[in-house]
Amino acid sequence: MPATARARLGLTIDMHARELEHDWRLALAARMALGPGDLVVRVGEGFGAFNDEIELCVGLAGTVAVVDPRDALDDCLEHDVRPVLVTVAAGGHESDALARARRTLLRWRPVVFTVADPEATLNAGSTLYEQQRILRSAGYVVRAVWRFGLRRPDTSIYADACHWIAAPCEHNEMLTRISSRILWSQLLPWQAVSSQSRAA
Q1: DSSP letter string over 31-82?
Q2: Bridge partners, residue 166, by sequence
Q3: Cβ proximity of 42 and 83 under 8 Å
Q4: How far from chain centre, in Å, is Cα 55?
Q5: Taking 80 as the threshold, does the pLDDT of residue 198 lie above it?
């Protein structure tokens, strides 16, 4: 993502480096959550190279819709359009974007990938605790992406910036599968590559 786009979204270069570091983990999770023909809604543009991976996952029959973070996702989607994945990278305004997507989250139950940057969120007048509260109140289990899988998110102002993956409570076994796959990819990288090539 160009520096001007990062500046417009309020992302720092440091956060962009962390995005790239976790990119393969998000890509792995997306491959497990998405299939050909699925609808993905991106709120904001802050996921960098991961955006290309999403387009590969949904294929030519799928759709990737981009929504401005200042617009309410609930108002942008048509009544019968079901997103499978919603990514939120709004330069610190993720809490606002998620609050304006509540009807969509409650009705369609998509998986949610979001940026969790305590500094940017605080500068936008919110907290990571509020971001997690919005997702949990909609019936989601929230986990942070880290080196060896997924873990409970740190919502303190001293937390490291990272990505969160949220799944509806009724599908929280997906988080366990994603976490296990990330762990195995770290411990046995050749195993992950061979299983991915068999899946493709």
Answers
A1: HHH--TT-EEEEESSTTTTHHHHHHHHHTTT-EEEEE-TTS-HHHHS-TT--
A2: 112, 142
A3: no
A4: 14
A5: no
Q: Quickly tell me which residue has 């520096």 as its tokens.
A: 3
Instruction: Pick the closest to residue 43 from 12, 76, 87, 79 (CA basis).
Output: 87
Beta-carbon neighbour count of residue 108 at 10 Å?
17
Say if CB 115 and CB 163 are below 8 A apart: yes
Asked which of 5-9, 45-49, 169-173, 194-198 is least confident by mean pLDDT, the reply is: 5-9
Q: Which two tokens stand for residue 149?
A: 């899988």
Assigned token pair, 102: 């509540």
Return the half-sphere exposure (C-beta side, CA atoms, 13 A cut-off) of residue 50.
31
Lowest mean pLDDT among 39-53, 88-102, 181-195: 181-195
CATH class of 3-199: alpha beta
Res 55: pLDDT: 85
Its pTM stands at 0.82
**pLDDT at position 17 over 70:** no
Handedness of CA 93, 95, 98, 99 (dihedral sign): negative
> How crowded is residue 130: how many other Cβ atoms within 10 Å of its Cβ?
16
Domain ranges of the chain: 3-199
pLDDT of residue 24: 83
54, two tokens = 């999403």
